[in-house]
């Protein structure tokens, strides 16, 4: 479990929490909204650590009995709301774990903290039950809702909570973490950071994913040779992608980043701006022999392919049309 200093990025949210603790103006309810892997749980736990720490400062000491209890997930005044049904948090979950216990004063701390992960899964009935507690909470109660989709929460819930939205980290922050902490080679770190789009958790997952490594190799091979092979070979390649169970959306993301590099190099001629620096020779050749209009057509075709796949259009047909556009342009 991390304290605020150990969490990468999200400086505004960390600063907000620490100022609230210093000024003794802690709200009764918060919503942390952001993609899975962006650090919602880490921020919530760092906040809980600070509130429950016996030294009572805006940064947990990590040494007192309360801190050790939080770290070992055994503090009696920190409650993680659970749910048996994987797809939903029901009204009974909220009533039994929050409403029926919130009036019991904290056992050993000033605060009693409830963390509700996957809050977007709360049913309407569950949210209405929670609303009663949020509207008239005891002074010591702090409820933290973690969600990836704030729009799934009722307007009445949103209006009574402090909403904190996690923003994507800068690519150089993600890249720096991968290189320094996971010893990822710089060239690979550039690619992982680009794919993660500011989500450090996703970048860490990608860096250790064998399936991603296979996708990376397969797509590099395709990009290098797409202009050299015939249509039948391209169609065979689509079959191989499906056989290897590669994520087609990730393949399309790869193509977007690749052609971003091609367009950027065509405009700037600056190799330092490339994500795929190790593929400079191929990117230089494509940018030299492709017109701006052709490259823009390819980028538009990749976007269309994503839309078609979301609409459940046949994958093989979608990819065949896309590769034809890429080959022709």
Overview of the molecule:
The structure is a single chain. Helix 1 runs parallel beside helix 2 (40-52), helix 12 crosses helix 13 (280-289) and helix 14 (292-310) packs antiparallel against helix 15 (315-328). This protein has a 5-stranded parallel sheet with strand order 2-3-4-1-5, with helices on both faces. It is elongated, with a radius of gyration of 24 Å. The protein has helices at 11-22, 40-52, 65-71, 91-99, 124-135, 155-159, 171-181, 186-196, 200-207, 210-225, 231-243, 248-268, 280-289, 292-310, 315-328; strands spanning 29-33, 78-81, 112-116, 141-147, 162-165. The longest helix is centred in the C-terminal third of the chain and has 21 residues, at 248-268. Strand 2 (78-81), helix 4 (91-99) and strand 3 (112-116) form a beta-alpha-beta unit. The mean pLDDT is 91. With 329 residues, it is α/β, with parallel strands linked by helices. The chain contains 15 helices and 5 strands. Helices cover 55% and strands 8% of the residues.
Q: What is the mean predicted local confidence, pLDDT?
A: 91
- Please outline the major beta sheet: 5 strands, parallel
- How many extended strands? 5
Structural class: alpha/beta
Order of helices and strands: HEHHEHEHEHEHHHHHHHHH
What form results from the Cα inertia axes? elongated
Strand coverage percent: 5-15%
> How are the strands ordered across the major sheet?
2-3-4-1-5
Uncertain ranges: none
The first-to-last residue Cα distance is: 50 Å
Rg on CA atoms, Å: 24 Å
Count helical runs. 15
Classify the helix fraction into a percent range: 55-70%
